[in-house]
Structures are given as structure tokens and as C-alpha cells.
């Protein structure tokens, strides 16, 4: 790994499991070959499992300071500890989520960033995220799918070293709609988006029935699965890679990863929280930062 500035690891809500999994990762950094990192934020008087306005303020300040360190060039990327959106919204009105905060800090619209979940077995991206399932069909559009898939393809090339990324797009409906008998989203929206992506030189296939796309022999045929809604992406990822899943923000000039789990207030301080996802997030952020510093042309 080239000599790069350390990562900034924001503490997350100190009443959650963030401090303990970060502490474990820090203690094992050399053993695991993790890149250097700085922990941003102080637990203070936080009590495990008891979130307060003060713990939310700590989490928010650690997050904004970590972003500032990267923007000043003092750190090469950010790994964000888990936070409670509801708690932070009490101290920072208008806070939507960490991904949106990063886009704001970069002066970019929220649509410029894409959430990818990545683990040892699977990478997957949901086209729609935190909305009611009933609202998904109305939010899908050819433009949305094309724009977000372009961001994904570019990021896989730049940040993951995949020269010709293969995108497999899920259908929305059971059996990918069965030629319109179970819905027309595949015909009217998803297939035209795939055709446009292919015309631009992006290796996109589908629409694939989601109930078969995540089988082991299918996963070998693509580099990322593009899902149409939250659970279509996260259920297989968490089933396959629950303890090592990483949330990666694509499309921004700032490197940002996060363990794909929440604050887990219910187990905080009990010594049973597994650090695997935090370790994986630190490792992935270091790899991406290194690739951006020394771009690679060879696929990996």
C-alpha cells in the first residue's frame, strides 16, 4: 500500500457499539495489516445502551470533523461509525443521513452519491432506498437507473480496479414481470435503461428475476447486482455477509465507508459486538484511498 495520509474513523454514537468495535480494530491493526487511522470523537460520559442528546452531539461533531480532515488533506478517507439518525436530527435539524451529509459537504446534489453494500460474496446497489415499498414503482425511472448505474460503473473502475465492470439489473416484479403479466416496469423502465447503458458501452444485463440472481452460480457472472429497492439489495447481502458487510458511498470525491450495521444499543457495552464489519470497512477505505492515489489500470 502506498504511503497515504491516515483514515479518519468517526466514533459514531458513543452509546452504541462504535467505540468498542473501533477499539478492537485499533488494537489489532498491525496484526490484521490495516491502514493507519485516527479515531475522531471522545466517548465522554456516554453510557452504553443509553443514547442522549449529548451522545448524538458527539456523533455529529465527530462526523463533521472527520469530513473536514479529509477536505484539508490531513486524512485520506472517512470510515463512519454507526449513528442514530433520529438522535442526530434532535441536535442537527435537517439531518437526513451520513451519505447525504457527505454529498452536502462536497457541494453536490444527493443524487450524485450512490450507496453500495459490499461483502466478500456480493456487491449490491439499491436504486431506491428508504421509502415505503408502495412508493417504489413511482420512484423508478429510466433516468434514475441509468444515472446511478453510470456512477456505479465508474466507481467500480476507479475504486475497485475492475476494468470492465459487469452490472446485473434485477427486475422489480416476481419473475421479472413475466413479459408484462405481473407488471410493466421491466418493459417500460428497466429494459430501456439497460439498452441505454449498453449503448454507452456499459456491460449491463437483465432484467433478471431477483429470486435466482443471488444464487452462488449466478453471482459469478456479475460484479454488482443493481436492485430496485432496499430489501431486494440488503436481504441477500446481509444473509451472505452479515458480519462483514460494508456500506460504501460511490460517486463523491471523498472516500467514505461504514460498517453495514447500526448502533446496536441493545448490546452496547456487553462485550459481544463483533468488529468484523468495522475492520472490513477500514480495510476497504484504505484500499480505495490507495487506488485513488495511485490509479491502477489492471483489473483486480
Structure description:
This protein has 300 residues and is α/β, with parallel strands linked by helices. Helix content is 41%, strand content 15%. The protein folds into two domains: 1-113 and 252-300, Isopropylmalate Dehydrogenase, CATH 3.40.718.10; 114-242, Isopropylmalate Dehydrogenase. It has helices spanning 18-27, 29-32, 53-71, 85-91, 98-105, 136-139, 142-160, 185-199, 210-213, 216-219, 230-241, 276-293; strands at 7-10, 37-40, 78-80, 114-118, 123-126, 166-170, 203-208, 224-227, 246-250, 256-259. Strands 2-1-3-10-9-4-5-8-6-7 form a ten-stranded mixed sheet, with helices on both faces. α3 crosses α4 (85-91) and α7 crosses α8. The longest helix has 19 residues, at 53-71. The model is unreliable at 296-300 (pLDDT under 50).
In brief, what are we looking at here?
By secondary structure, the chain is of the alpha/beta class. The chain is built from 12 helices and 10 strands. β6, α8 (185-199) and β7 form a beta-alpha-beta unit.
Features:
300 residues, alpha/beta, Isopropylmalate Dehydrogenase, 2 domains, ten-stranded mixed sheet, globular, disordered C terminus
Looking at the structure, the CATH topology of the largest domain is Isopropylmalate Dehydrogenase
CATH homologous superfamily label of the largest domain: Isopropylmalate Dehydrogenase
Count every helix, treating DSSP H or I runs of 4 or more residues as helices. 12
Top-tier CATH class of the largest domain: Alpha Beta
SSE run: EHHEHEHHEEHHEHEHHEHEEH
Low-confidence stretches: 296-300
- End-to-end Cα distance, whole Å, is 15 Å
Counting helices, strands and paired strands, the structural category is: alpha/beta
The percent range for strand residues is 5-15%
As a whole number of angstroms, the C-alpha radius of gyration is: 19 Å
- When the domains are counted, the total is 2
Mean pLDDT: 94
Lateral arrangement of strands in the main beta sheet: 2-1-3-10-9-4-5-8-6-7
Into which percent range does the helicity of residues fall?
Answer: 40-55%
Cα shape: globular
How is the biggest beta sheet arranged?
Answer: 10 strands, mixed
The CATH architecture of the largest domain would be 3-Layer(aba) Sandwich
Task: Compute the number of strand runs.
Answer: 10
Amino acid at each position: 500500500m502506498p504511503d497515504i495520509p491516515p483514515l479518519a474513523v468517526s466514533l459514531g454514537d458513543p452509546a452504541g457499539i462504535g467505540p468498542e468495535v473501533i477499539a478492537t480494530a485499533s488494537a489489532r491493526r498491525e496484526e490484521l495489516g490495516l491502514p493507519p487511522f485516527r479515531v475522531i470523537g471522545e466517548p465522554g460520559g456516554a453510557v452504553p445502551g443509553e443514547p442522549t442528546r449529548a451522545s448524538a452531539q458527539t456523533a455529529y461533531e465527530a462526523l463533521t470533523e472527520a469530513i473536514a480532515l479529509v477536505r484539508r488533506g490531513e486524512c485520506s478517507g472517512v470510515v463512519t461509525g454507526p449513528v442514530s439518525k433520529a438522535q442526530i436530527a434532535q441536535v442537527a435539524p435537517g439531518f437526513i443521513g451520513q451519505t447525504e451529509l457527505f454529498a452536502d459537504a462536497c457541494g453536490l446534489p444527493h443524487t450524485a452519491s450512490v450507496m453500495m453494500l459490499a461483502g466478500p460474496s456480493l456487491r449490491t446497489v439499491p436504486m431506491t432506498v428508504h421509502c415505503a415499498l408502495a412508493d417504489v414503482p413511482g420512484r423508478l425511472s429510466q433516468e434514475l437507473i441509468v444515472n446511478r448505474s453510470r456512477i456505479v460503473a465508474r466507481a467500480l473502475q476507479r475504486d475497485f480496479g475492475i476494468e470492465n465492470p459487469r452490472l446485473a439489473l434485477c427486475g422489480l416484479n416476481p419473475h421479472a414481470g413475466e413479459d408484462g403479466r405481473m407488471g410493466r416496469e421491466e418493459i417500460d423502465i428497466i429494459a430501456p435503461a439497460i439498452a441505454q447503458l449498453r449503448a454507452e458501452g456499459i456491460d449491463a444485463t437483465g432484467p433478471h428475476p431477483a429470486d435466482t440472481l443471488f444464487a452462488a452460480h449466478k453471482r459469478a457472472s456479475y460484479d454488482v447486482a443493481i436492485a430496485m429497492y432496499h430489501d431486494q439489495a440488503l436481504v441477500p447481502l446481509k444473509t451472505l455477509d452479515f458480519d462483514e458487510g460494508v456500506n460504501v458511498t460511490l460517486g463523491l470525491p471523498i472516500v467514505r465507508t461504514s460498517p453495514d450495521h447500526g448502533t446496536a444499543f441493545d448490546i452496547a457495552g456487553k462485550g459481544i459486538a463483533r468488529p468484523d464489519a468495522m475492520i472490513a470497512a477500514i480495510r476497504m477505505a484504505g484500499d480505495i484511498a490507495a487506488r485513488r492515489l495511485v490509479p491502477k489500470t489492471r483489473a483486480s
